[in-house]
Write a structure and sequence with these properties.
Layout lengths: L11 E4 L4 H8 L20 E7 L2 E15 L2 E13 L8 H13 L6 E6 L4 H6 L3 E2 L4 E5 L3 E4 L3 E6 L11 E3 L5
Parallel strand pairs: 4-5, 7-10
Antiparallel strand pairs: 1-2, 2-3, 3-4, 3-10, 5-9, 6-9, 7-8
Length: about 180
């Protein structure tokens, strides 16, 4: 158990905005805070943000964004989840679970049947524990210079409604990834 843990249980709050300074407060100011720069992708910012503060410092974040998508021949929307971050000194305390769970509760009010995220392979076990499922289908995303490219990161989905089933078929985002 960390000495940084306060007596009050951490709780998630909606954030009115999420800036580069907020991200640096959680992850520091390194060149590749999410470890995905090698993918060479341009990302969309999230539109809705959730965070956890500890001792007046932002220590965890998850963001959401509605995304237009085609799955097989059907066009629909998903809620993209991204920007999930926990400060290094606070990891292992369940903060990722708390912030992602709160974000998904809000995502259930946004309309789509599913949420989707992209992650590095080492994070797949974490998201599996949180109820996410890896997709086996190829996922295409838009990029400014290259048009459509295959997503090099692992794509995972989770239902937002009881009984929602992810359709089979290739997946195409009609946008940059989030």
């Amino acid at each position: 158990m960390s000495d940084n843990r306060s007596a009050a249980a951490p709780h998630v709050v909606p954030l009115p905005r999420y800036t580069k300074a907020d991200q640096e407060e959680i992850l520091g100011d390194g060149d590749d805070p999410f470890g995905v720069a090698s993918a060479g992708l341009t990302w969309l910012p999230k539109e809705e943000h959730f965070g956890i503060r500890h001792d007046d410092r932002l220590v965890a974040h998850a963001g959401l964004r509605l995304l237009p998508v085609a799955i097989g021949d059907a066009e629909t929307e998903v809620v993209g989840v991204g920007g999930v971050a926990v400060a290094s000194g606070m990891q292992g305390q369940g903060l990722a679970r708390l912030v992602v769970t709160a974000a998904l509760e809000h995502a259930r009010t946004m309309g789509p049947q599913h949420a989707l995220l992209f992650c590095r392979p080492p994070l797949v076990p974490l998201y599996r524990r949180l109820g996410w499922h890896p997709l086996d289908a190829e996922v295409l995303v838009e990029q400014p210079e290259d048009g459509l490219v295959t997503m090099p990161l692992r794509t995972m989905v989770t239902p937002l409604r009881d009984g929602a089933r992810w359709p089979s078929g290739p997946v195409r985002l009609f946008s940059l990834p989030m």
